[in-house]
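User: Could you walk me through two proteins back to back? I'd like the raw sequence and the structure tokens for each, with a short line separating them so I can tell where one ends and the next begins.

Assistant: Of course. Protein one, sequence then structure:
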Amino acid sequence: MDAMTKMWISFLGIGLMAIAAFLITFARVKTKGILKFVLSFIAFVMLIFGFIYGFFSII
């Protein structure tokens, strides 16, 4: 894989992690009930995918 592709994959991972951090903060501060659980779950999934993309860009 060339360096430019690795850069874009790492940007995707960083972006997913940043969006997940914002989403979990929003879910904990502004929502409650089932919506809080759903937003937290979505943020967790995005965090996992961000980690996978970040790890994949290192290889």
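----
Protein two, same layout:
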Amino acid sequence: MPETAQYVDPRRWKALIFIALAQLMVVLDATIVNIALPSAQADLGISDSNRQWVITAYALAFGGLLLFGGRIADLWGRKQTFIVGLLGFAAASAIGGAALNTGMLLGARALQGVFGALLAPSALSLLAVMFTDPKERAKAFGVFGAIAGGGGAVGLILGGVLTEYMDWRWTFFVNIPFAIIAVVGAVAVIREPVESRNSSRLDIPGVILATTGLVALVYGFTRAESDGWTAGLTVGLFIAAAVLLLAFVIVESRVKAPLLPLRVVADRNRGGVYASLALAIIGMFGLFLFLTYYMQIVKGYSPVKTGFAFLPMVAGMITGSTQIGARLMTRVPARRLMGPGFLVASVGMLLLTQIDLDTSYPTLILPGFLLLGLGMGTAFMPAMSLATHGVEPRDAGVASAMVNTSQQVGGAIGTALLNTIAASATTEYAKSHAAGATSRKALELQSMVHGYTSAIWWAVGILVLAAVIAITLVNAGQPENGGAVAGSGDGAAEDAIPVMAH
């Protein structure tokens, strides 16, 4: 194993507090703005056609620049990139909260995405290079995984409270104290091993191809949601994305210092982690969206009550990450946590396919949420650890960026795919049941619920597929004597890899 990986930072646990705080800020932002969007739209006079760009501007910048951000972290140093990302994200949030018109808000959201793309991979890669002891690393990633999995639901709660009792602008301003505390803490306690940096020249062709390819892919799925899958622009974007990303792979295989060393993704275990995480996020994003609308429109919950209704899922994620995943990941291979974890989550999702107009929260939705959270928390934690472990320290930033990229692209795909499925099922149900309907309002609500359950059925299948990929591709060996086992990747992955990565 590389010598630098043996470095033990005496302040690592204090550093984890501030790294986790920054991660919480980024994850919260993915959902907190959704709750505030109707109020912001009314206040700024945003048109219905431009409304989606409040979400899309962030997703395009964040998803498109993540690999670049990970490489910058390897080049500049994770601590410096982490601090720059925090300060930039806070400044962009201040601009968003003070927005006077549509353009100012959309620009702020894009800027948040840019700095988020620096912040997210540097945060995860700091953990990868600071925590080298298997048991300590398990605990650290347990905390990080719980925040990454549950932060989105917490964002729904916080967004509801701030929007209902204060003002939508506070969903932006709330990031500023988070960022300031994290910056002060980072300056005081984070110490990064200097030897883990990658001082190779920046791969400019790779940056351009990866960024434009990912932006085209994310934007293609966004257009599919609004224009349809066969629209000329949608098809053109998908073709462009395929060509650009194929060209990116070819370039990366030939340049001396690639943006994404293919050894990072060619490893069977890491590839399986990236694929299964992307699929799991597809299902999760769809569920957040549909259940939020279901509880507010069908059940009549307030934004605050809706947010609190998601709390059991957050509790399940925290329990799965810290009490199951973290305790078992040093004892069993990752696939034996990831596969069953995704299957337990799919059972929870399966329960939620049974929602109806008069569904009881305690008897159906609550157990569904608990199983979903427990399964996802158990699977996410070893997945995040395995995704960044076994790589050479100089590649830690870009490996971390791949975790975030798979989640971001998975979220964009999930939102578009499942929304399209739900919308089609809703329309078909309304048409086929229009003749026998006794109430237009009842038909509208029943059609909506039918659309949601149709999409959730797809999410069940996607989670099962994630479990199959995790079980079949993630083939890291059984730990022996609490020590190290042989890996199957390139570079450092071929050395003895600490047991907790398995």
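Confidence is low (pLDDT under 50) at residues 1-5, 477-502.

Let me know if you want the two compared in more detail.
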